[in-house]
Design goal:
41% of the residues are buried. The protein has 381 residues and is α+β, with helices and mostly antiparallel strands. It has a domain at 5-71 and 97-167. The chain has helices at 5-10, 26-36, 49-52, 54-57, 77-81, 98-117, 133-139, 189-193, 211-214, 223-226, 238-241, 267-272, 275-282, 292-306, 311-321, 325-338, 340-353, 357-370, and strands at 15-20, 63-70, 86-89, 122-125, 144-145, 151-152, 160-167, 199-201, 204-205, 232-234, 264-266. It binds cobalamin (B12) and iron/sulfur cluster (2 copies). One iron/sulfur cluster binds at residues 148, 194, 196, 198-199, 205, 210-212, 236, 238-239.
Length: 381
């Protein structure tokens, strides 16, 4: 038995692997290529040595411990049964924010290792550190990359979130887990299903057009991708849901992120939330960090994509009363999808009465588009 096994059991860490703190130089070329093709995520840590060398991040590091916590939980029936117009959240955001949960476990792990093995320095990393969490998991032998660029563990597929602990003690390395991937031309389901074409090629994601990014980015949602959002308001699970590697995975041994609170949300309610209501509903979820306006913008777009008649009145309320120009502009777009002729008259009204520059831009777009012959029939996107 590995000496860490009892501590991992005590801390309810179901999947973990120990490896060295040596560098991962193979990343250098990958990042250089992504930078050169403008598909390196500018919102991730800059591509400096710290990304591929754990010792550049913590010079005393001798070992790395990667932990994975599964989240393939099912939504409670009460959530699925609602008949109001709903917007979906990506599964990782259904419960408690994973950053907080994993950080808590890693800090406790560090303290246990200080007591049991005289460790003196450690650093926990969950997204926050410059390191590539996925590459560390692969290097330590507990996961393998899929074509969709996610990493897959043996028992829970890619429905795992990752965290790492760098620590100043030598620990025995764990054995490599064998994971037989089904990626190849005979599959490619993730690449085919990606609505935006963000998965440009195997293992290659253009982060700037990935819905997971677009739903988090502030400001105006790019026009060309609005209709591809469907009724999702946070994150995107499509390239994981279609993956055969995620079928017949083990059921969850425990609800690590609490009982899921929201798998979907009533879009009318989301659009009426105050800041306090937003904080109360999503403040502890991984969908809470970006704030209310971004989520409400997405909710307005999702109403347009719902194509439901009942969405018209909700969108009109937003156009008349919402305090954010970005959300009102998104509502105008939604109205154009739901009822183009009503939308057109509202775009005229907005041009005359709503001085917000974002609303003006959206209304002007529709004024120009609809003034061309036949455009009432072909107003997408
Ligand atoms: C920036 C970021 C994003 C960006 C960009 C994602 C991306 N694929 O690069 C956006 C916002 C789009 C995003 C989306 C998501 N993310 Co994210 N994200 C990150 C973050 C902070 C950095 C990732 C990064 O550096 N990307 C740049 C690329 C170049 O580096 P990389 O991911 O390591 O890419 C590797 C592969 O491309 C591979 N590779 C390249 N070429 C080749 C060739 C071969 C042959 C092979 C085998 C491999 C290979 O090597 C690269 C280096 O490791 C990490 C946390 C972290 N600090 O690592 C979380 C992280 C990757 N995200 C995570 C999650 C859960 C998601 C989402 C599922 C959330 C959602 N449902 O909406 C989606 C998944 C989208 C997808 N298909 O990847 C998890 C991944 C868990 C897993 N099982 O893989 C992480 C690790 C967070 C965590 N702590 O758990 N994310
Ligand atoms: S869908 Fe197919 S190609 Fe994509 S990650 Fe899963 S097994 Fe690999
Ligand atoms: S998360 Fe969604 S948008 Fe991003 S690569 Fe996967 S399927 Fe495409």
């Amino acid at each position: 038995m590995h000496p860490l096994e009892p501590i991992m059991q005590e801390l309810a860490i179901p999947v973990w692997a120990v490896g060295s703190a040596s560098a991962m130089p193979e990343l250098q070329a990958i990042y250089a290529d992504r930078l050169q093709r403008n598909i390196y995520p500018a919102f991730a840590a800059p591509a400096t040595t710290m990304r591929w060398d754990p010792r550049a991040y913590l010079p005393e590091a001798k070992s790395t411990i990667v932990i994975a916590v599964p989240y393939n939980v099912e939504p409670p029936p009460s959530i699925q049964a609602s008949n109001r117009i709903q917007g979906q959240l990506a599964r990782y955001a259904w419960g408690e924010d994973y950053h907080r949960v994993l950080h808590g476990k890693l800090e406790l792990l560090g303290k246990r290792l200080a007591t049991a093995f005289k460790a003196t320095v450690w650093r926990a990393a969950v997204d926050s550190a410059p390191l590539s969490d996925r590459q560390l998991a692969v290097k330590n032998g507990m996961a393998a990359f899929g074509w969709n660029s996610c990493v897959f563990g043996r028992d829970y597929g890619s429905w795992i979130v990752l965290g790492s602990l760098l620590i100043d003690i030598e620990l025995p390395h764990t054995e490599t887990t064998s994971i037989s991937m089904q990626c190849g031309p005979q599959c490619g389901a993730c690449l085919k299903a990606c609505p935006t074409g963000a998965l440009e090629a195997p293992y290659t994601l253009n982060p700037y057009i990935c819905l997971a990014y677009l739903t988090q980015a502030s400001g105006v949602f790019p026009r060309d991708y609005r209709h591809l959002l469907g009724e999702t308001i946070w994150g995107c699970d499509i390239c994981q849901t279609v993956c055969p590697m995620n079928e017949q995975r083990q059921s969850l041994p425990a609800p690590y992120f609490g009982i899921p609170r929201y798998a979907s949300l009533d879009l009318a309610e989301v659009l009426a939330w105050t800041k306090t209501e937003f904080d109360d509903k999503l403040g502890r979820s991984a969908a809470g960090w970006r704030g209310k306006t971004v989520l409400q913008r997405n909710a307005a777009l999702a109403l347009g994509n719902s194509k439901q008649a009942a969405a018209v009145q909700i969108v009109l309320n937003v156009l008349q009363n919402h305090g954010s120009g970005v959300v009102r502009a998104s509502a105008l777009w939604a109205l154009m999808q739901l009822d183009p002729s009503l939308g057109y008259s509202w775009s005229q009204r907005c041009l005359a009465k709503d001085s917000d520059p974002t609303v003006q831009d959206e209304a002007e777009y529709w004024r120009q588009k609809m003034s061309k012959p036949n455009d009432f029939e072909s107003h997408q996107p």
